[in-house]
Amino acid sequence: MPIRTRVAGAVAAGLLLSAATPTAFAADTSTSPGDVVTSAPTEFHPLPGQWTNTSAWHITYRSTTAKGGPNVVSGTVIVPNDGRTGPRPLVTYAVGTVGMADSCAPSAGFPYGTTIEATLINQIVQRGWAVAVTDYEGLGTPGDHTYTVGRAEGTAMLDAARAAQRLGIPGVDANSPVGIMGYSQGGQASSWAAELHDSYAPELKVKGTATGGVPADLLKVAHANDGGLGSGLIFMAAAGQNAAFPELNLDAYLNPAGKALVHYFKSNCVAIDSVVGSFKHITDLTVKNPLDQPDWQARLNESRLGTHAPDAPVYLYHGTLDELIPYAVGQGLRSDWCARGANISWHALPLLGHIGGVTVGALPAADWLADQFAGRPSGNNC
Q1: Among 60, 64, 178, 304, which lies 20 to 30 A Cα-Cα from 75?
Q2: Per-residue buried b or exposed e for 48-78, using 16+ beta carbons within 10 Å of the residue's own CB
Q3: How far is residue 56's CA from residue 352's CA, in Å, rounded to a whole number?
Q4: What is the full DSSP assignment across 39-107?
Q5: Pair type for strands 130-134 and 70-80
Q6: What is the pTM of this model?
Q7: Phi/psi-derived region of residue 120, left when phi > 0, alpha when psi is between -120 and 50, beta in every other case
Q8: Cβ proximity of 75 and 121 under 8 Å
Q9: Rounded-to-5 percentages of helix, strand, coil across the chain
Q10: Which H or E element spans position 36?
Q11: What DSSP element (H or E) covers 347?
């Protein structure tokens, strides 16, 4: 496939080797998933003011909606300035829940050091790997964020890897070994990317997927959070599903308080959303529970994981005391994948909740990915 958007190889190599500011790429008029539409230099700071010896590009790229139509998604590609010009691993990374407003997008926070999980992403970059971080559909691009719509998240991740390979960065190309990684919402996205790989992007040389805290069954997760600490996530998820499938007509189910809450979520990020939305019951904010309706149940079940075995090994982990995504949901995903013959390295994280799972689980997950890039055994324990 011709690549219409790239920096000349010699110029890009010089940029990477000298740690100079990345060059912007021209607009792309092609229409294949993964094609770069725009690219411009940006900065990657894990924390405010923290310098990293990296080059980074903010990109928009073509992808696919949950209904199979074309869309454009934004993201960031980060490459260490370590002088390496030969092949290097590429990790496509999806962050956990950040919110629904465009200002919440990972790309929006990277220049300022305010992106959630940026320190974890930096640990990956410091291994010498290139990283592509999707913003997901509707974060940083027109339209509402399709939060928790698994298929749209999975295609956005796979196409972020394709886009990174098409930027013309030395050592990051179609021959790069690819890893998939994410936790929480990012766990849903990375697990969907793993399931979609063989049918949607089989040319990507995926060596493994590290995924944790996965909301593999949205109906079970919603029922577990009704009236609890994570109740706001139910309404964010409903808004995300409605963004992908407007025929669900979410507004018809919400009372005035419910409409006000969803409107608030669309304009704010997770730090405040989680406080404002907590300890609410679905019945408090609706005139009729959408989760009881066949069309809602069908769409939510379309995002259910475990119906198809990933074609590359998977490192799956979950905190045993996860207060947002029940541990049993993670166990169920393991069982479903194992029953379908997948290669699963399962890791329970004793006495850890949801946030503890991402902080404690990230390093072993990255170590496992390094083993896959090196061709070592995956540790299948189905």
Answers
A1: 304
A2: eeeebebbbbbbbbbbbbbeeeebbbbbbbb
A3: 34
A4: EEEE---SSTT---SEEEEEEEEEEE-TTS-EEEEEEEEEEE-SS--S---EEEEE----BSSGGGSHH
A5: antiparallel
A6: 0.92
A7: alpha
A8: no
A9: 40, 20, 40
A10: strand 36-42
A11: strand 344-349
Distance CA 313, CA 150 (A): 19
Place of tokens 């990684």: 181
CA distances from residue 15 to 22, 108, 130, 154 in whole angstroms, order as listed = 6, 23, 15, 31
* 334, two tokens: 């393991």
- Residue 280 tokens, joined: 């609410």
Q: The tokens of 172 are what?
A: 């990051």
